Amino acid sequence: MCDEAKIDSLVKTAVLAELDGVEFLQGFDYATLCREYNGIGPEWAGETVREKITEFLSLFEPAALIHDMRFANSDCGRYAFNYANMEFWDNCVKLVKDAYPWWTLRHWRARAAARLAFDFVSGPGGWQAWVEGYHARRTF
């Protein structure tokens, strides 16, 4: 699902859109970004489902990359969890604004999709992924 060209494209889009968290990504190499970025959707949904969701919500992929890296580096705390999710929301809105004029139906549909994605990542399933991200990095 991921290669260096894909990551490069997502990072370039994130930079051009002035997304929050771009500087955070610069601390990781391509291999790490590729390993942690799983597209849009929860790990437990499986690759096929995530590929379909990612295809449908491709506009939000740069925001999802930053979000996935925040989750992969979870501190298991509620403040950082909320920060990562609000950053995701803000970044999705920036991507919508860059893609569609505010008066178009596409703009409002994309915003609604962003809201659904935000509600999902900030809900119980998102919290579970946040905690799992923390425990996956623990080595004891």
Can I get a quick summary?
The protein is mostly helical. 71% of the residues lie in helices and 0% in strands.
What does this protein structure show overall?
The protein has 140 residues and is an all-alpha fold. Helices cover 71% and strands 0% of the residues. The protein is built from eight helices and no strands. It has helices at residues 4-16, 22-25, 30-36, 47-56, 61-72, 78-99, 105-121, 124-137. α1 (4-16) packs across α5 (61-72) and α6 (78-99) packs antiparallel against α7 (105-121). The longest helix is centred in the middle third of the chain and has 22 residues, at 78-99. The termini are far apart. The model has no long low-confidence stretch (mean pLDDT 92).
Category from helices, strands and their pairing: mainly alpha
* Poorly predicted runs: none
Provide the succession of SSEs. Answer: HHHHHHHH
- Share of residues in strands: under 5%
Query: What count of helical segments does DSSP give?
Result: 8
Mean of the pLDDT scores? 92
Total E-strand runs: 0
Distance between the termini: 30 Å
Q: What is the CA-based Rg, rounded?
A: 14 Å
